Every structure is written in structure tokens, then in C-alpha cells.
Amino acid sequence: MATSRSLLYFFLLLLIALAFLYAFISTSVRLAEEYKRPRRTLRAPKENLWDTLLDDEVSQLINWLYEPEQGLNLTYHDNATHWDNFIGVTELIPPNKTDALAYLEGNGSVPTRYARVVLFQGASEDPYVHEIKVGPLPISKKTTWEPYNYIYNKGDSATPWYGADDKKRLHEFFKPVVSELADITYDLLGTVIYGQDNDTGGLRTVDPLQKENGRIIQWLEFIGLPQNGYNAETLLSQGLYLKFDITGRDPKGWAFKALLYNDIMYNSSAEFRKAYNTPGFVKLNKIVQGDWMTTKRQGERLPLDELPPPIAVQAEGPRYLLDVKNKYIEWMGFSFYIGFSKDLGTSLHQIMYQGKRIIYELGLQEVMTHYAGNDPVSSGLTYLDSYYGIGSYMYRLIAGYDCPEYSTFLDNWFHENGHTMYQRNSVCIFEQDAGYTIQRHTSTKVMGFGGHHQGYASATRNTVLVVRTVASIDNYDYTFDYNFYLDGSIEVKVRASGYIQGAFYANNEDYGYRIHEALSGSFHTHVINFKADIDVMGEKNTFERISLVPTTEKYPWSEKPKNTMKLKRSSIGNEDNGKLNWPENAAEMYVIMNKDVKNKYGEYPGYRIVPASGSPAHLIIQDSPYILEAAEFSKHHLFVTKHKDSESRSSSAANYMNPWDPSVNFNKFFDGESLLQEDLVVWFNLGMHHVAHTGDLPNTVSTTAQGSMMISLHNYLDLDASRQTSQMVEINFFTEL
Ligand SMILES: [Cu+2]
After folding, report:
1. Could you mention a single GO BP entry for this protein (predicted)?
2. What is the ipTM of this complex?
3. What sign for the dihedral angle of Cα 641, 644, 646, 648?
4. The predicted structure's pLDDT at residue 733
5. According to the model, what pLDDT value does residue 36 have?
6. What integer pLDDT is reported at residue 527 of this predicted model?
């Protein structure tokens, strides 16, 4: 009996094992088939003019730059010291719009290719970074270089490089100062820094650098290093701050100026040590590390949560056509090219809808985060992320989480320091059901005296094409979506997640909530600037403001005047009036129109730009003493200017290195030029004011940390364009009451 029961168990186990094996194999086969499914391809009508340089072009270019005839005195990056000159980023310069359009829409030849090359000039008492323009490419006898000045309205592409000696300073200057304090930091902070691999503490610099009386000032903060392998150091501020003068290249000119603890300044380590040894010295809370810093699953299990949630499937393959080599896509009347740059990541170009160009360029310009706080680090911390290279932080996406399993994944690559960096699967493209209809209606009528209900219901699926990337810029993760809708709308959406940059809790009550033992969720504003070069039926357009105003009107049919509301139309005449905020109560519409064209009812066709989710933010701080004029785009919600090839970006990577004299001062774009029936560019901000709370631990969640802008057809077609889709139903019904 016992033997037969054992046999039964054995067969039962075998059966279960086989079932698991079958499930595993069939899932693997299914996934493999999914990936192997042929893409629906096409050949782009023209070459992509905005992608990265080709490998051959770059290797020839770099060899050419090293030739002594070019006079650049360059050292290979990997062998370079901080006293050498070396190559940074090399990338394609976008063509001028007129040249590009002549090629894309006319008989013009492919625009000549030029590269932008960033050169770090360390071999100088005053190190600097400058950019040169090299071309034509590929390298030939005609190739020359010249300073790449014309897109920098400072008039010069050179920027002081105060960070040339950063590594030397850290190891030979900062760390000796802090290791001398190790006994105190061990007691006050629970960590030590000796400049060794097993240090339990670290130093955070505040960016950008500051100036006082002509001297370059660097503030540093002690931080804990996470002991659990999670990237949580931005949650581990320790409230001890150091001030250094780092002016010049000669270490003899550098000085340790002061130390700040609990809102008290000490002019030297000795003064601080003396105070520390004095009875009554107030010791603040230490950071407490733990699971709260980790993103692993924690807390009580949720009921039924272990069952697989619903997922989307794509039964018959993609419904978009793709040219992978040219990163060109066609979908439901739209077509566009995807560009890439190391500083800014992906951008979209030559967006056509129903055979007409509607946007020449749509792309990120800058990601700014400005903090505030009682301490010098939180107060001064202001990020302009293009300096770090937003595109270089666009890593591999997670299939099934970041994007549906069935997405098409594309690669990016960029060239920096003489190397090519590949980022596999860092762009995903997919269609998704929005989860609600784009159109629906139910109609019922009671028929006759019998009370029969007769009617119909109509509904149209809301299928959206998404182009998605994620930039994980150190602590924060920004998800960038370009969403295309069946009614011709294009949505630009940003979601934030990842670790907040917290502050030490003490004395920061007015700048954020206290969200852990020693942590303040320091208040900051994200301003994320985009460029939309919108062209409505040609380049010549006008920016219309349609105000919705209260009024009192007399009517022939009424004895008394009536309080009511009506439309008031006006145009933005010139760039002096080109800085705008979103109106209170949304009582104004902003529409880019072509006033040389009328539809059959006499209205001008246009594209409306309108916030679609979240609340667009601009900087609350007036005239930031830290970012100065380096981020003028952050002062309003949106801007309109006349297109110029020399005003191609609202910011620049180099702005962050020299906010006192930024390479691009966006404010200079507004010089009174007419905007009436001109080629217009709209610069709009997404973002938010972020007062982090306990729900931002361990990571900010995207439910509230998001915002989007919709660019939508406005009297552009005679009818809603989503009527073209076959993915709709009309159901007639007849019921008795
Ligand atoms: Cu934030």
C-alpha cells in the first residue's frame, strides 16, 4: 500500500514538473516569437538628418583632429591629465531649416554634414571648454574647422572650465581637511572619510559653483554612503557643510574658508573642534539607514496581488511602419524622424500629418531643478541636466514594465572622449489602448405609447502611438513620452520617479516636510523646457490669444442687458510680448494659426497648445542668485519667438559652467521682431513644484509627479480625424421598458 502511494506521489510530482516545464517552454517560445515577429518596415522617403554621426565618420573625424596640421594639440582622452587638451563630445550639427526643407520637401541635395566637437583645454592657466564646427563630412581635403560660435548668443563658444582640477582637489585638498575631522564626524554623523575605499561617508558638491567677491566658491556637504547597495545617497544628507575657495589652478590659492553645523558658522576646523569640546554643544540627529531607503518589496502583502495583473497584447504585430536605419515611423497619417543627441536625448523631426508638415522640430531643451533651503547646499543646488548629458543617461528600458513586451526597441549611441557609447533598447515604440474611448455616444428614444426604447451606441477605440525614453540622471528618473492620437493631437509627457535629493532636517522646517529621522524632503521646482517649431500649412504663422471674457451685453430680444461671456481675439505682435503664462481659470486659448489660409467657414486653421495633465510650473524664485541668467526659460510657462537657425536651443550644456556669462541667454531671443505671419517657435515648460512627503520614500511615484502638453488640431480639418479609424462600433438596440 505504502509503495503504491509513493508511486502515486511520484507520478503526481512528475505531472506537476512536466506542467511547469510546458508552461516555461511555451512562454519562452511565445516571447521569442514576439521578438522575432517581423517588423512592418518601409524605407524612409529621405535620410534622417538628426541622428548621430556614423562610426566611420567619427573615427575619420577624430584621426583628423589629432593631425598636427589642425594645430589643436590634443592628447588621447585616456592618456590625458588635467593639464592636457582632449576631445569631449562629437556629434552631428542639425542642418539649417531652409537646407533641410529644400532636401526633404523639394529637389535640394542632402545638406552638408558638419560635426560639433567639444574640446576641453586643460593645458592652460585658465582652462576652458570650447566647441568647434568641423566639416564638410566625411573628412576630405575640403574639411576645415572653425569656432562654433553662431548658436551661442554670448558670441563665443568658449567657457571657463573651473572643474579642470576637480579630482586633484578632492583627493589632495578636500579629503585631508575632512579626514582630520574624522573623530568628530564619527561621533556627530556616525561616518568617517579618510579618502579610502572603506569610507562610510562621502562629500556632495553643490552645483553650480558660486562666486563671492570675484573668488570661486565651492560648498560641500557630508553625506552617508548607503550600506545596502541601493543608490540612496541623496537621502543621506548629514548637515555638516564646508566652504572652500577654489580660485585658480595653483593649490596655494585654494583655501578652506568655513564650516557650518546647526546654522552656526565656524571659521576653521580648530574653532569647530573647540566648540564641539565645549559643554552644551548641541548634537543633531544622525541619519538612520535601513529598508526605508530601498525599493525592494516591503510591507504587508496585498490580497490577490500575487496573481498576474492584466497585460496588453498585440495579436497581429505592429500597425506602424518603421525604417530602423533612418529611425523613421509612419502611423495613422503621421510620419516623423527620431533624432538623438548626448546632451538632450531623443527629439522628433519633420512631423507630418495627412501629408503636411505640422511640426518641424519637437524636443527637449533643458531639465532644470532648483532647490531651496536654509543650508548653503539646498539653497544653492540648481541642476541644468543637459550639462551632464541627458541622452547619456538614457539606459536600456525594461520590457513589460517601462514599455509593453511587444514594443519595438531602438538603440542610441553617442561619441564622447573618443569612444562610442551604445545604449541598447533605450527607445521604445508601441501602440497602446488608452483604456477609454476617444469618442462615444449613446442615444435612446422612447418610441410610441408602448414605451419601447430604441437607440444606438457608438464608440471608438482610443489607440495611441507612444515613443518613450527614460533618462536616469543620477538620482532622478524622467520618463519622456511623445504620444500620437487618432484625432491628430500630439502629447508631450514627462513623468518623474527615482530618489529625491533630500536635505538635512535641521533648520529646514520652512523649506519642506521632515520625512525621516534626519531628512527633509527639500522643496524644489522642476522646469523642463521643450521646443516646438510648429508649422501650420507652411512656415508663416501667427500666435493667437483667444480670451474668454466676462461681459454685459444688450440684445434686441432682451429688455435688460445680460451678464454673459464672449471671445476676444488678439495676436502677439512681436517678441517683446512673447513671454506668456497660462491664464487663471484657463480663460484663454493659445493657438498657432496660419492667417494666410482660411477654411471653408472663414476660420484660420491652427494648432492649439494646452496643458493636458499636471500643472506646468515656472520658477518661483525671483532672479535666482545661483543660476543667474543661465535659465531664462524657467521664468514663464511658455514663450514664442521667430525661428532662427542661430537660436536653435533655449539653453546649452555650457550654461551651467558659467552662469555669470552664459553661452545662451534665452532672454536675448526677445528683441522685438515681428511675430505676425512669421516662422514661429513655441518654447513650453512642463514640470512641477515638488514638496516631497513621506510618500516620496523610497522613490517619488509618477501618479502625481507628471505633466503633459497637448498640441491639437484647431479648425485644421473639417471634421474630427478619428472618424477615419475602423476601430469603432455602432450598436443599435431596441428594448421594452
Ligand atoms: Cu522632485
Report:
1. amine metabolic process
2. 0.98
3. positive
4. 82
5. 44
6. 98
The 3 state secondary structure assigned to 646-697 is CCCCCCCHHHHHCCCCCCCCHHHHCCCCECCCEEEEEEEEEEEEECCCHHHC
| 473 Cα–ligand 1 center, Å | 12
Asked if residue 31 has pLDDT above 60, the reply is: no
How far does the centroid of ligand 1 lie from the alpha carbon of residue 690, in Å? Answer: 5
pLDDT (0 to 100) of residue 454: 79
Give yes or no for a cis peptide into 556 (omega within 30° of 0): no
DSSP string, 366-379: EEEEEE--SSHHHH
Catalytic residue positions? 385, 476
Contact 193, 178 (CB under 8 A): yes
Distance 708 CA to ligand 1 centre (A): 16
CA–CA dist 44, 35 (Å, integer) = 23
More confident residue, 453 or 504: 504
Q: How far is the CA of 526 from the centre of ligand 1 (A)?
A: 6
Average model confidence (pLDDT) across the chain: 93
Our separate counts of H helices and E strands in the chain read 8, 37
Provide the pLDDT for residue 418: 85
Domains of the chain: residue spans and CATH: 57-148 (3.10.450.40), 164-293 (3.10.450.40), 321-728 (2.70.98.20)
**Amino acid present at 179:** S
**Do residues 631 and 366 make contact, with C-beta atoms less than 8 angstroms apart?**
yes
Separation of CA 443 and ligand 1 centre (Å) = 46
Ligand 1 mean position, distance from CA 208 (Å): 18
Q: What is the Cα–Cα distance from 462 to 711, expressed in whole angstroms?
A: 17
Handedness of CA 310, 311, 312, 313 (dihedral sign): negative
**Ligand 1 centroid – CA 634 distance (Å):** 15
Cβ atoms within 10 Å of 283's Cβ, excluding its own: 11
Is the pLDDT confidence value at 1 over 60? no
Count of CA atoms in the C-beta half-sphere (13 A) of 668: 18
User: What pLDDT, on the 0 to 100 scale, is given for residue 196?
Assistant: 86
Averaged over 385-409, what is the pLDDT?
97
- Is the pLDDT assigned to residue 694 strictly greater than 60? yes
Total Cβ atoms within 10 A of residue 505? 23
Query: DSSP state, 3?
Result: H
Nearest to 506 by CA among 294, 292, 287: 287
DSSP string, 43-72: --SS--SSSPPPHHHHHHHHHHHHSGGG--
pLDDT band at residue 30 using 50, 70 and 90 as cut-offs: very low
Mean pLDDT for 479-491 is: 98
Question: What residues does the ion ligand 1 have nearby, CB within 5 Å?
Answer: 690
Q: Could you tell me if 594 and 605 are in contact, meaning their C-beta atoms sit under 8 angstroms apart?
A: yes
Distance CA 650, CA 633 (A): 7
Cβ atoms of 510 and 520 within 8 Å: the answer is no
Three cell numbers written together for 573: 505682435
Note if the bond before 698 is cis, omega within 30 degrees.
yes
Phi, psi of 635 (to 5 degrees): -90, -15
CA distance 197 to 211: 32
Q: Which three cell numbers stand for residue 469?
A: 525614453
